[in-house]
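Problem: given the chain below (1438 residues), write out its structure.
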Amino acid sequence: MPRHGATPPRGMARGRGASATLSHDGHNSRLLMMWTHQPPNFSRHDFVMSPAHALPQISDAELLMVLAPSAWDTLQAAVSEGTDLWPILSRALVFTPVQALADQEVIARQQQLQLSIHRHIAGLCGLMSRTQVVLARTSRARHTLTHVELYFKDQYIGRADMWRLCESMVDACVYVGQTVTLAVGIRAKIGRLFIHEHSVMSGYVAPSTLPIFRTESARCSVFVQMSREMWEFDESGEIHYEKALYGFLPDLIRKWDSIGTSHVVSIVLFTRVLYDESEREHLASLPVQRTSSGQLYVDYYKVLLELDSSIHWPSAMRRLKEEFFRFQHDILLQPRGTSSRFGLERQDPETTRGDQAVGGRMLLGRFAQAHEGNVLEAINLLLNSAEKHYIDRDLTITGFSFLLLTAGTGHFFVDKSLLRITTQRMFDLGLSLDLVCLTQMPLHTVPLFRFMSQVPATRSEPKARTDTHPLFVDNARGPSQMCEFMPFWVNGSFYNIEQDRPYWETRFVPRCRMDGLRMTELLGSLQQELSLPYLALPAAPRRGPSASVRERFDEEQFAPANNVSAPPTPTVPYMGSIVPPGVSRVQTPAPPTPRAPSFDGSVHSARSLVLEDLGKTVPTVSESITSLVAASRRGATTGDASRLLLQALGAYAPRAAPQLVEASHTSATRVAAMEDTELDASVAAMAGTSPEVPRVNALNPRVAMSERNALLFRWQNAFIERINQHTVKWWSMTLPACLPLTTRYLPSEHELAHSWHEYPYTVSVHSDTASIMLKRGTSTSPALAMLREMCAQRLAQGFQLVERPVARPGTAPGARDARQFVLRHPTEMLRPGNFADGDPVYLTAMDQVHCISYSRQAGMIRVTRYVKKVPYSTSPISYRCCMWPRWHPGYRPLSVQFHHPDPHAYNWTYLDSIIAGYEDTFIESLRYWRSRFVLVPSEGSPPPMMAGSGDYLSDEEVRLMGMDRLAELFMRAEYYPRGRPRHARDIPLRFLPTTLDPSSSLSDASFVEALAERNDELDRRHAHDPRPRQRESAALSLSAIAEEMRASKRELKIHDRVWHRVLHRRTFTGADLVTWLCRTYSDIHTRDDAVQLGNKLLRAGHMEHTLALHGFLDGHYFYRLAMPNEPSAAVAVATVPDAAATASVAHAPDAEANAHAERCMARTRVQLSRSMLIDVDPERRSSRAEVAVLHHDLAHNAENGFNFQIQWLGATARLIEDLVQSWTRSVERYGLRLVEAPIHQIKDIGLHTPFIAPLSIPLALAPPTPSAFAALVEEARRVQLTRAREPQSDLEAWLLRYVLAPPATQSDRLFEMALVRDYGFVLDQEAQSLYPSHLDVHYSSRPMDFDYTQFVHRSGVAFIQVVGGRDGYLWLNNRMFNARWHTQYKGLGHKHAVPPLNATQVRQSFQRLCADEEALRQFYDRVWQLLAALASTNNGPT
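Solution.
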């Protein structure tokens, strides 16, 4: 930061001339009376100014600045004296004249108004209402922000949405604490603002401003390494695990609480246990593995918190403390023999003493030290769950935060292949790790990973590639040596706070910090000695004077030697055991130039000191990549060019030291203000060459590897200022940053030609494109709209826009003068008016580069994909460990694989075809976002509801009406492409009601026939009806309309229907009649008009309700036409007389039709779901197309779950969230609950998230086997065919409808399913084996590969799968539903909202039931007695 006497900012004049310019002359500044207001009261705008008091002739390059009079006087004095201006300018308020003059209505109404400012904004600078302020003109360039931080909470914001949010702020002034909102509902709060390293209260956002997005609602995973050192004492005498329990974790929780974050937190304990060969015989049941040195080991993981959003931290910390004491006991005490220990309960002390007495358990193994632990394995397990982030997308959280707590020093011995795949995956996903060490900083580079690798034996090999680091090369010819790698994706911190006494900054820290580079130049390769005089302290006072004497002594001894000049080209000797190919070894080092050691950098910076000859180094803590990259400049050509370019761009100002701020998602102090180096690389790339970046010893990696520039620059734009190495980077752990949208890394043309594969293709541009991802009718040209959408889709997949220097017009090819280049920002290039023909836009990822350009002459967009050539194996790595998921009784074996990122896995050509309008179907390789929802009947009865006829509806009828309401909502959200208007006469979307389970319904021929008819209708929904509609119902009598109804038997679907085992002959539904009336008569415009006509027909006696309960209603209500010489409807309704009649007429119009349906089913694909495009922005709030794909079930049972999925690529997630919430509120009044559910079966949840596994709940008493009750069930079915028994309980109703009904043939798990049904669960998805094998059943709304039948609780808090037998069930809490409720109700302050059931309490209650043998026996007896009663012929109909 500039100190006294520093150069003022650009645009601020100095001296007397500047003072005269800034006087109150009415032209440059004036005094005004300021008011304050609170929007929307008084005005919706933040600034309101009267034109009469504005400064005249304000240009577009100027802003208006508001200061207090005292601050103005101080500013004038600082300008005159040439002192630092930023203390005053940082608290100035700036705004645009257009912004202040926008509210003309208020200006005209308030005649006394001069200037009014938002109360919060005025408070930032201490300005009070009704006080005088100074209004002055100022340069826009002076207040242009370089970085702006934006915080967001309780919402999912994709990277494409971040880009659009940034574009909305360009050309505007922003303020600390301001809320920025897009029309689509995305909101973010402005945090810190920076102009270079200066923090300001307000500023101007230009296209060059770099946004930093920080989330307050992230998926935070805290990993605690339980190594051997965790139970040892640190240097201050404190046990490490006590420092973690009573120090770091409480501090972290307090930070979260003070900020008000709502992270979803997981806490995992992990360790590696080493075993001797003599213990091998006792480890037969464990997943034992060997290290490269042959050491036996087993890795253990224990989950304490699992994606919890509503944590009670006192109880969580209490459990964490208990686990620290039990951890060694649970792992090191193994059962004797070779029997499996997995799934055994934790042994209590009495059981343990008994085991020891009988020799039941023995002590095996020892905990590994931190440096030989399973750190990389734990990270990769976490990455396995992060890779599928687009599946089961939680729309209330954004981003990941990985935190690893260790008692080590940040130095690890690892496997080379595992380190490489971890590095690739971390950067491919745009993630990083916060490593917190509980020790003091060591005297070596940290974090540092060491591994064994073969390295080239000589330096004579040709330089064919730039990938020369041993980590990224396999099969090198040479001996195996120990190699080092500094991970750029690790953000290191040291928690050194001592709990027993306060921390003071002047305390003595036993660490050696010297400037490694300058000491290398000084000492060279010869052994040197440093001698310092003794410090003579005064004997009397001990406190203040002695401290000042020590500080003065250090400053004198280590002051920079200003009289010694550095050599023009410093020589860096080879100091390590490995020299990468391409870097020549210094054979005869130049004699060192004597020079005193200097410490002109930060006092906390870490440096290296070479004390002996070649190859011997004293390593120290790694410095930031700021210094690494700064030290990489060689020669005067590129350095001068970069400085000249920065001067030409108006961005260069000499500073004392590079300044950076740590970011959450990479090494916080790894990359600094690297404008010079980046622009050197960019300008060199323009000339087709790569900048020369030297390589040095890996033990002191001062310079980044050239081929890994992407690793450094990928996170560069998230840094602002530099922080001390020894401090804990709380900002990164509390408010994780998201991957920056832009970067300046781009390989050179030479590298792209030799080290990358090239895949070009073109996409045609048409003005009449019908793409579902482009909004029609906008003023933006189709080419620009397509180009922007292609960039947005790549940003959503982790790509970054490249900021690159572009040659000025007229610049000669191959020019290296930086003044001939200008820095172009992608956001500026993609704005209307700046879009140029053939101007390429570059986007980069880890190992991919996309170049997109538009050719106006050819009418197409050219896309060139560059994929990095890989000189190493990309085979997956298999891994085995022991995992203890939450709520489980013990450890269980786990086998997973770690896969390298595949750059060819994403089908970019198909994606661009969708954008161009040639395709509209999503495929799996697109990685589209998806969420599944289940609509279930809620607990209890729905609210009473009255039909339009004045009759009260039953619970089932209310829920069926709710399903009709959901169908209307789906139809209302349907997307209509250009050229297809919405018509009121379109066939409405109606779900097919049924009283059977899905698999049983397919055995009903009448249902299959009705399903085929419904599919045909929906296929013809938008087809033009060729029949004329010139007839009007008003011109016909009711009798004539009734006759036409009899003649339209097929259109009205008049046939026999069975509902709850009752046969309704020759009936049609009210919904079918309403649809027929709307499509037949021209004067029936709406469905309400059709309902009125239907009531007239009913009152005239032309039709009747089969049960004579209701008037005419639009829905699934049965009606029949009045026939002469037939009994009334009440008499016509009858039960099936006998079994033979049931077989012939109960489930089909006649036996012949039933047999025909059976023959057709073997050849026909049965489609049980439908798909449709929906517009998630019906209010047209977005400036782009907001289209998603909706897959929904076609049939629905009011007592089961109804499934639908929403899938999207380019839609705004906030709009989807709002749409789902509106659907949820609409169906709640009908006794229905919308539950977000995992897409896959809970049995396979561990395949995607290794730390989560369903809980197995066995049955203490095995249920009766199918062979024992099969005869009883068959007898009950036979008896119930001829009897109509009214159920007396919910359990009896379930038996009658789903077990004993004729189509229901599956009863193998009768008692197990009866138990979950009785406990409040409803059917979600049946096992695939239950569906008829001769049918090709197709669902797009739900997966079909379920191994077991799955149920969902009516409250939505849990899922359960029926395994059967003594194995019982698999249980999984519904994390997504619980997190959603916590965010939407509790987080938004709905104090009167009734919280859902506690999932843990529901599970524990169910576990107690399953573990109670007597309770199970009573339940089995109750079910058996019900079956016996239903099978008895003595009981007549009731």
